[in-house]
Design brief:
The complex is a heterodimer of chains A (312) and B (283). In chain A, 72% of the residues lie in helices and 0% in strands. In chain A, α4 packs antiparallel against α11, α11 packs across α15 and α13 runs antiparallel to α14. Chain A is mainly alpha-helical. The longest helix of chain A has 32 residues. Chain A has a domain of 193 residues: MetI-like (MetI-like fold, Orthogonal Bundle), CATH 1.10.3720.10. Chain B has 283 residues and is an all-alpha fold. Chain B has 14 helices and two strands, in the order αααααααααααααββα. A two-stranded antiparallel ribbon of chain B has the order 1-2. The relative contact order of chain B is 0.13. Classes of the chains: A mainly alpha (312), B mainly alpha (283). The interface between A and B is large, with 113 and 107 residues.
Chain lengths: 312, 283
Amino acid sequence: MNAVPAQPEELSQNQAQGYTVARSFWQKEAVLAYLFMVPGALILLIFMAYPFFYGLYISMTDRFVGIPGSHFIWFENYRYLLDDPVFRKVVRNTFVYSFVTVPFKLVLGLGLALVLNQQFRFSRFFRAGLLLPWIVPTAISTLAFLMLYNGTLSPISWAFRHLGLMNGNINFLGDPVNAIISICVANIWRGVPFFGISILAGLQAVPDDLHEAAALDGAGAWRRFWAVTWPVIRNIVLISTLFSIIWTFADFQLIYVLTKGGPANSTHVFGTYSYQTLGVTDLGTAASISLYMFPFLAVFAIILLFYVRRED
Amino acid sequence: MAMVGSNRMQNRWIQLYIPLIFFLLFLIFPFYWMLIVSLKPDADLLNTKLNPFLLYHVTIGHYTYLFTNTNFVRYVWNTMVVTVGSTVLSLFCSILIGYALGRFRFRGGGFLGSAIFLAYLVPPTLLFIPLSQVVTKLDLYNKYWALILTYPTFLIPFASWLLMGYFRTIARDLEDAAMVDGASRLQAMRTIVLPLAMPGVLSAGIFCFTLGWNEFLYALVFMGSGNMKTVPVGVVTDLIRADVYFWGSLMAAGILGSVPVAIAYSFFVDNYISGLTAGATKG
């Protein structure tokens, strides 16, 4: 706004008129702003806000797919789920899945970023290649894991057998504990590049001369990392972690492709259990399962918003 | 000096080569695996005597099977229609929203910006059940519009957020000067700001395209029947029948289904992440 003409007294008649036109538009900035929101807002209202409240309503009914009519039963579905042993496993699995994987993704991602931040030949090529796990459609890359975890064809089992470490094959997905570990490994594999590339962007803001000065003062690599590098990348690490927790918490496709929640419903998370319940046409309960995620997601989303806005 | 040199070499191995090799093995191996399985004859694939890490014979049979015996081509077409449609729609809405939030000062602007960010964090797993009812009521089930209209719920928030940041970086002076010269705000926006913002619009478009291409849950629930499936859904549901896995074709489809996205993304991924984390990278 301080950029209006440098020498207003030199304005010609025409320009002065243009200026007034601009001013009148300027005053209508708010009107225009709201007008610009309309198309996007319409889509978000119809396909996001409305379904959210509609979902709340469905979750308080005993509605079944294809059966007309339903009763309003308040929080009966939510209460029923608290007594459902599978749902308890769902809660436990989701927390394991989103919190146990995070430290691995974070540490490996930090390592990846520190490697890629060095100068070496073909580094751009390596950078693009090492990002692939995060870029490729998850449903598709998970198929590779589905085969790596296969009971008879797994090359991991083959390697262990041939190294003489075991006689049979590893039962990756048929055993509840193994299945959760296998799922977590696939998730870590997919998430490392996201942390890697975010942290790498942060590392590029670390001033070189500060590192050199600290090195001259005799600080070792470890101390230099905590004193010089860490303060610069701390926020980006935090933000990436929050993103990752939210995404992993609400994940669907990785588990759907690997186990569909099996064996014996032992690896379900909110998304897959909700989908399975929808499959048995119990709409009310299915909606309740996915809405149970909401309080958790809301808390993390608001913390994330706070940090992103603070950086703004 | 020789000692210093060898020390440096040793450091280089510890700090660079060894971790780099580890990351290459860990992160790239599944792709290597997909590639060799997609080229391996079934006889070799199922022969547990052979070393599974190596390729003894090469066949393109799995790829031809994919094109002749499955709906793969149709699925690629479906995915294109849905992705391009939702990308165009989302870009149109997001340019307007991003411009308004990035350049106008108005009451509620900050609040709306936060709302857009929070909307981006709403996962499909939270809404797919009521949304499936909305899709059915609007008679969109198993039609392209089911996804063209629902994908923007996550594309618009992301693209708007990215473009908002982008529009902010373009100096206000240029636009103001144009308006002083008699251009209306819309003219100034179209002729001055939008061309300058083209790189941002382009990368927002690429991300919308890849996010749409990769989406799974909505595609599975709203458009998952017959020959209306998208690539990720079609590959997962069609090539795994009961207990019969068509491993070779499955991996061939995986390779073909990820190549376009991988190429598009690798050029823009830096923008993607800096857009996502907004100013957080400034340190």
